[in-house]
Design a protein that fits this description.
6 strands
Length: 209
């Protein structure tokens, strides 16, 4: 049921986006790409990056009780421009705690590996002509590969928090992370927010204020 809802919901979003893009002159040269957009194609891209199957690995591990909560808004400044960044988190009841933790571990490890590869490729592309980067064989063996992204495990309030830290990331407040609170998996993009959630869980704080 959960998977069917996700497919139907995001399919409607994709179709709405395609309809809007067709009438937008900015996308006039990309009509073939827009027409080729599909929820299945998007899922394949996401799964290849995360290294797990959403339908076979993620969905069976979680329960039916889930949601997204907005805890506040942050003012963020990047290169002189400021904008509002929502402080939100996802909570999800676990149908299988062990499987959920195994899936999250596999996802974060794959995320770090792929992020390092793509960021390394971008860095090499910016080098002056004649300056050779690492070969594909070197990358496969991890020779001299810079660690742009890394997995960090820490403890706060007796709860383990696992996060992905990206060096020199323009939005420093953003650090994808997750923790297990009782029978729930909690995922957010802000460590301070996750720590507040843990404080509330441990009855050290009555609210997010």
């Amino acid at each position: 049921k959960v998977w069917k809802f996700i497919i139907e919901f995001y399919s409607s979003l994709v179709e709405a986006s395609k309809a809007q893009a067709k009438n937008d002159p900015r996308y006039s040269g990309h009509k073939e790409i827009i027409e080729g957009m599909s929820i299945n194609g998007i899922i394949l891209i996401v799964e290849s990056f995360l290294g797990v199957s959403i339908e076979k690995d993620v969905i069976p591990a979680i329960g039916n009780n889930m949601g997204i909560a907005l805890a506040g808004l942050d003012d963020v400044t990047v290169k002189g421009s400021s904008f509002i960044l929502p402080q939100a988190y996802i909570f999800c009841e676990m149908a299988d705690s062990v499987k959920t933790q195994d899936v999250m571990k596999a996802m974060t490890q794959s995320l770090v590996k792929n992020a390092n590869y793509f960021l390394g490729q971008m860095q090499n592309a910016q080098k002056p002509s004649g300056v050779q980067g690492l070969t594909q064989a070197d990358n496969a063996q991890g020779k001299g590969q810079k660690e742009y992204a890394r997995l960090i495990s820490r403890e706060y309030g007796g709860i383990a928090i696992n996060s992905v830290s990206i060096a020199d990331f323009p939005l420093q407040p953003l650090e994808p992370n997750y923790c297990i609170l009782g029978k729930y998996l909690v995922v957010s993009l802000s460590l301070p927010l996750t720590e507040k959630i843990i404080d509330v869980y441990n009855n050290k704080a009555g609210s997010f204020d």
